[in-house]
Amino acid sequence: MTLPGSKSITNRALILAALADGPSTITGALRSRDADLMIAALRDLGIGVEEAGDATTLRITPGPLRGGEVDCGLAGTVMRFLPPLAAMADGIVHFDGDEQARTRPLGTILEALRGLGARIEGDALPFTVTGTGSLRGGTVTIDASGSSQFVSGLLLSAAAFEEGVTVHHDGKPVPSMPHIDMTVEMLREAGVSVTTPATGGDADTWRVAPGPVRAVDWAIEPDLSNATPFLAAAAVTGGTVSVPMWPSSTTQPGDAIRGILASMGADVTLADGVLTVRGPEKLRGIDIDLHDVGELTPTVAALAALAEGTSHLRGIAHLRGHETDRLTALADELNKLGGSVTETDDGLTIVPAELHGGQWLSYADHRMATAGAIIGLVVDGVDVDDVGTTAKTLPGFENMWIDMLESSPATPKASF
Question: What keywords is this UniProt entry annotated with (predicted)?
Fold first, then answer.
């Protein structure tokens, strides 16, 4: 399976390129709904974004930021990464998105920006940022236990703030820390000075110094989280799937799937940049804390529902604030098919059960749709509704899935 670029890296690269001291090129960019919403928003705010030869190669030319309209869709990266940029625009920027996006938590970052000098009306979508051409910046304390994107959103634009920014987290542990590591690594690659707890800074505190953002030619890694449904397909069917261009070192949370699948009994090898998964005769259940890699939960829940032995998925209470309440959605959909899934305060307990066919709702959530597709490989008669929602991060998922299965005609296939 050859996969498109990482959404998380693509949208971070777009923000940094918009603030850079010269034109940048992004190669291997993801072109999905989330990425295209980010591109459209940057263009509306005055940033030049042009295709250079093909759709996945982008040339970004910074320019004066102006007022405009931002459609966030359901993209957390758009609704949390762009408000700091908008606060430095010369004009009014209106933010809105899909109806479902209006329930996603945003108050943390919007209130933080107010504390840094921004003028913002509203605490959730729709909201309005009145830019004044610059932002003071400074020190702010937030509770980022709901999403690491609150920290990343503030850090990405902070070098352009007059005083930079110091972000201190006060609350339960921040989820998805690899995404903050990704943000810090990319900032440093762009020449920005960042101090973190791991580099001598205070605990739960990140400091970005003011200064130029260097123009960088970004090469985007494949999206490893989007690889997980395909690797899971091998694991649940006893088949084999290989993914080329797998990085030997990465900050992407999706890399954790290697250890997860191995713990559940699959044979996992990485050689010469190719990750290969061979499924076992029967998967084992797993007891795992997914706090740092919560986006893998739908894939792991599907694996656990098809495994032998009880599984405990922990540390993922923050998933209740994603595209949907993923914990309730996973429990409901698996139980509808005969599963035995119980919600806990911070996760799911999944007990093996005989599953049967039926409709699997996606809740306009791309990872819920792919979880249903995994179940449908083993259980006859699973009908996944609205599989098109996968275009949020992986356009063409349905065709890629069908192509993968063409060599295994006896394998049940969820209908879309």
Answer: Amino-acid biosynthesis, Aromatic amino acid biosynthesis, Cytoplasm, Transferase
